[in-house]
Amino acid sequence: xxxxxxxxxxxxxxxxxxxxxxxxxxxxxxxxxxxxxxxxxxxxxxxxxxxxxxxxxxxxxxxxxxxxxxxxxxxxxxxxxxxxxxxxxxxxxxxxxxxxxxxxxxxxxxxxxxxxxxxxxxxxxxxxxxxxxxxxxxxxxxxxxxxxxxxxxxxxxxxxxxxxxxxxxxxxxxxxxxxxxxxxxxxxxxxxxxxxxxxxxx
Length: 202
Description:
single chain, mainly alpha, 3-stranded antiparallel sheet, 6 strands, 54% helix, globular
């Protein structure tokens, strides 16, 4: 599953028009007609390429009456790029001293975030606004979920509600940052290598 998702990502990124669409969307939300004009292609061509990007979870869509607007899923793009590098270089070890120092730093940060954002009985006080802290919290939320098990949306909602009442936002964040994937209202954990890496953020 991990390799399939990485291949889907690279297939989506293997077309010049799709790359140009992503570059344009990096400036902000845009609709299909505007993208078509800027790319000098037909709206139908934009729709075709958007479906490939959406399949790889590289863009989000929203409909306003008869107009579809696209936004960049920058977290997913960064995650796939880092996951590809991790997969290729997974057997390459860093110098022990530098790894130990970085591991200690990350461990201290993780403990601090969990201490500040969770109550003593394990409830999430509020969802962090800063991306790095948010990813640490999301990672903590999924560690009790079973690998390879499928969760109905209602079941996942009840699980997340045990931590925080805004389970819908938490569920969306887990999908957006590649901790889980959704298919036909059924949710499953992605391999850890797919998760957005808070350790790599500054």
